[in-house]
Amino acid sequence: MTTGCIVAPLGFQAGSTYCGIKIAKDSLDLGIIFSAYPSTGAALFTTNQIYAAPVKLSRKIIQKGMGCVRAFVINSGNANACTGEQGYKDAAEMVSTAAACLKISEDELLIASTGIIGRPLPMEKITAGIQTAVNSLGNTQAHGDAMARAIMTTDTKQKSVAIRIKINGKEVSVGGIAKGAGMIAPNLATMLCFLTTDVSMPAELLSECLRNSAESSFNRITIDGHMSTNDTIAIIANGASGVTIAEKNNDLRTFQQGLDYVTSTLAKAIVMDGEGATKFVQIDVIGARSRNEATRIARSIADSPLVKTALNGEDPNWGRIVSAAGYAGVELDESKTTLYINDILIFAKGMPAQCDLNTLSASMKNKDIMIRLELGLGNYRDTVWTCDLSHEYVTINAEYHT
Amino acid sequence: MTTGCIVAPLGFQAGSTYCGIKIAKDSLDLGIIFSAYPSTGAALFTTNQIYAAPVKLSRKIIQKGMGCVRAFVINSGNANACTGEQGYKDAAEMVSTAAACLKISEDELLIASTGIIGRPLPMEKITAGIQTAVNSLGNTQAHGDAMARAIMTTDTKQKSVAIRIKINGKEVSVGGIAKGAGMIAPNLATMLCFLTTDVSMPAELLSECLRNSAESSFNRITIDGHMSTNDTIAIIANGASGVTIAEKNNDLRTFQQGLDYVTSTLAKAIVMDGEGATKFVQIDVIGARSRNEATRIARSIADSPLVKTALNGEDPNWGRIVSAAGYAGVELDESKTTLYINDILIFAKGMPAQCDLNTLSASMKNKDIMIRLELGLGNYRDTVWTCDLSHEYVTINAEYHT
């Protein structure tokens, strides 16, 4: 997935380097995304009560800076999480060094870290790395690709996408990179996503767009239900395209659609790169009393180890799916419940349906699996994307040693 | 675990048979527990919104019969779940056949089924099996052991225990059997527990004791977080010991302790027999603002696939434990959070602790693992028991085919 990159929108540069945080010398481990113009920004952070120093600091910065953001500085290989006061001081030093090198205010940049938990950041390496990354800033596809790799940990593929859309006759772009393979993989993961656009937009409106987009993308995926201490999604809008969106109008809707495309593409890429994943599974819950109830049921199915192992075994085990729906804490009516797997009706209004089991079994060999549960209770629906649970997942996570 | 059995209390008999529901001919698949005297009973059922016909019917019976229960009739090999109206008729037929054979009222017996989902009960076999089981009723250890085996599905070990306690100078007994290896294992599991006692007790008081006991035993275990459609816990008290407990006094407390011993022994036996389990893990959360918050955090840790795979890999991965606590939806203060694994301090008030890693690593090879998380927020605590997530779990559940 390298159609377009984080520096596709006008006025953005990226620079990255190997500064020695990771052990493997050919791995990039520090990257900077920089807007040549004053810009607005918005960010969402993990809701985990145990959150890392860079999350704590970036939350403060975005409040203090009133939504003016011009740069992201990210390191991989060390999460700077569970590191106490020293961790917070190190994060602050990362900000001041980067601000000095980029010649911007300390209130105009956000930082993020991903990697091992509970170890101090190697600050000498970080300081040198920031200087090198700033010196390497550029806006080619190669710069964008390197930036996408610089934030990877257990990811097996870089995740980067951009889209060009027309607003009011003018071309604007949205670009994005993401990383993540377990919601948190041991001490070496986290979900990160950085977005850029050359639209100009007030920070509040941008923040609303980002929240909307995250709701329908990153908040709809689950690999193992384990939330990271470092999750961060952030966007910068620099106005370099000459297009300004200042109110809730058709232009904003067009922009939202473009942003949604970028975030859902990246979110799905994370699921497809899920630790040990062999299947990409879409779970649609239809006919719920509210979206929230649809979400809870879809998540309950997606997070069930029994459903995930059945998918891994390519078995259309509808009993596991229906019973996982049943314990989601939502009132159901079994006699109205209907289930399709890969568009084949298998459970109809509370009773097993007569279906062509050969066709169904054959369809389970597909990489993409569709599960559609109809509740018959109302008009709301939701979709969650997940992957299967494989021997490889156990191997990756049981054989990893701290 | 065969110290004592379900017919240890006076005035109880058990009978079991192979009637042809299971494929393996040497497996028992139908059993009956019967009290020679009029008795009171109490039962708890799955809270899954998709619940099986026997659960639906037994719920009605216990309400209608005003807590008079003299018998349990249980089949394994077929759960009679997701079977629609026919399933309910079959359950009713199971009740009327058993009541006629046992010469008791249809309001005096509870039924339970466990096994494959979505297939009609083979009623001819069940009817014949009930007659055979009634003819084989007896009160020896062999009768009790056979009864424990008759309710097994994917279980590898029978789970049976009894305790003798003194109340008011007289000996009374509590016996129990249980089955379960996954909370629900595919189409072949469920958690069932049947208890007997020769104490006499009003149904309401008995029901309260059972709820208390379940709270501190079966409601404190999790193997894979997947709740069954058929879970049932039920007790009969027949008064054969001559001891009556009719109010909340010291005798009741003594009885409650005995019942708690039986239920927690059986609950732990289920975890130890968990699908693919190689570790028995106790998670203590201490210093919470409420018991509910302690429970939520303990469950969040217990159900994290990342924690479970680390335990399987015998790795003391404290980052996964602390971050799982962080997403339980409970407000935490990292700087007050402290973690012990196998009584070794590894995370102290928000910072990694200096500890003897060799000793810690060696202790991870134990079959029993203790995790103690101290929150420093209040005076409440809770304990949850779970097991690890192994390759064997994936094999059992991915290779099972419907």
UniProtKB/TrEMBL annotation, chains A, B:
Against InterPro entries, the record matches this protein to: Arg_biosynth_ArgJ (IPR002813), ArgJ-like_dom_sf (IPR016117), ArgJ_beta_C (IPR042195)
Residues with site note (Involved in the stabilization of negative charge on the oxyanion by the formation of the oxyanion hole)? 114-115
Reported EC number(s) for this entry are 2.3.1.35, 2.3.1.1
Q: Where in the cell is it found?
A: Cytoplasm
Active site residues of this protein: 190 (nucleophile)
The Gene Ontology terms for molecular function here are: L-glutamate N-acetyltransferase activity; L-glutamate N-acetyltransferase activity, acting on acetyl-L-ornithine as donor
Its UniProt entry gives the catalysed reaction(s) as: N(2)-acetyl-L-ornithine + L-glutamate = N-acetyl-L-glutamate + L-ornithine; L-glutamate + acetyl-CoA = N-acetyl-L-glutamate + CoA + H(+)
The pathway is: Amino-acid biosynthesis; L-arginine biosynthesis; L-ornithine and N-acetyl-L-glutamate from L-glutamate and N(2)-acetyl-L-ornithine (cyclic): step 1/1; Amino-acid biosynthesis; L-arginine biosynthesis; N(2)-acetyl-L-ornithine from L-glutamate: step 1/4
Which Gene3D superfamilies does the record associate with it?
ArgJ beta chain, C-terminal domain, L-amino peptidase D-ALA esterase/amidase
Which example biological process does GO assign this protein?
ornithine biosynthetic process
- The residues that hold substrate are 153, 179, 190, 275, 397, 402
Kind of enzyme, top EC level? transferase
A Pfam family hit: ArgJ
- List the GO terms this entry assigns under cellular component, sorted alphabetically: cytoplasm
* Annotated site residues (Cleavage) in this chain: 189-190
Q: Which UniProt keywords apply?
A: Acyltransferase, Amino-acid biosynthesis, Arginine biosynthesis, Autocatalytic cleavage, Cytoplasm, Multifunctional enzyme, Transferase
Protein family (similarity comment): Belongs to the ArgJ family.
* Function of the molecule: Catalyzes two activities which are involved in the cyclic version of arginine biosynthesis: the synthesis of N-acetylglutamate from glutamate and acetyl-CoA as the acetyl donor, and of ornithine by transacetylation between N(2)-acetylornithine and glutamate.
HAMAP family named among the record's database cross-references: ArgJ
Quaternary context: Heterotetramer of two alpha and two beta chains.
Would you tell me the protein name for this molecule? Arginine biosynthesis bifunctional protein ArgJ
* Annotated organism of origin: Candidatus Brocadia fulgida
